[in-house]
Amino acid sequence: MNRYGPASTERTGQPASRLRSWFATHRAGRGQALVELALILPLMLVLFGSALDLGRLYYSQITLDNAAKEGALEAARDTENLTEFDNTQPCDASTNRVVCLVVNEAKGSLISIDPKDIDLACDPAPCPADPGIGDTVAVTVNSDFMLVSPILYVFFGGQTIPISATSIAQIGVDPAPGYVLTPAPTPTPTPEPTATSEPTPEPTGEPEPTPTPDCSTPVVSGSISITPGSGKSDNFSGGATTFTMTAPTPDPQSADCPFTYSWSFGDAVNGSGQTVTHQYADAGSGLGNYYTVTLVISTPNSPTWTGTETVKVTP
Q: Mind listing the domains of the chain with CATH numbers?
């Protein structure tokens, strides 16, 4: 017997046994990993869906906040928006602008807003037709958010979550009607002595020229009167408003010193006379749609008085 025969047989059998053992262990490890993945995967999917649901809820709350802000700013912009607000009617860009801005702000988002879910309240109540500084308007918007992840039902008490947002804005106040410019006092000139004319031996019979009256600067104690104080523009479909403007009566008033009245209505149109009427062709420009009306009262010797007034023209 070769002394290396049995020994070589034992040496060649050991690697095969180890290889079979490694394959058996590897198969058992793969099977354990698959079982663990099958147990953990549903939990991971639930957690991932819950995170997405919370993100959707946060985004919907932001949308609701922005819609409430848009409605409050539009309501505070003009008192007509306060009086025309009606959450029982759909969006109307002419007569129900607050509802329009709130509803349109949520378009394309994860939630929708119905007009009946919009509330408007003023402080002080009810909403004033002529607000003062410090009066506010609050717009509240409500909606329902639907959860998708069932695990969140437990924490929020069901699939539907009511959400709301409120925004407060100070109601815009029109500036006070125009003001009267008080002219600077004109010093009274020292009268020059009248030269004594020498008697004419024989009158020529021709009439003496009438001297120009010494008219002083008009003294005005009143202000320009405009009726009404505000109104629609000429091109508005609801009809035009004719503004009647009356100049104050200066003092002194005499036949030798007649006054002339020159008007500038602020839209490149002029007029004359103590009482005039005017219609504006558009709603004006700037905050509040105002025009500045200028009046110049003058005398034959050119001393003048100038006053201004503002008129609001709405679309």
A: 38-170 (no CATH), 225-314 (2.60.40.10)
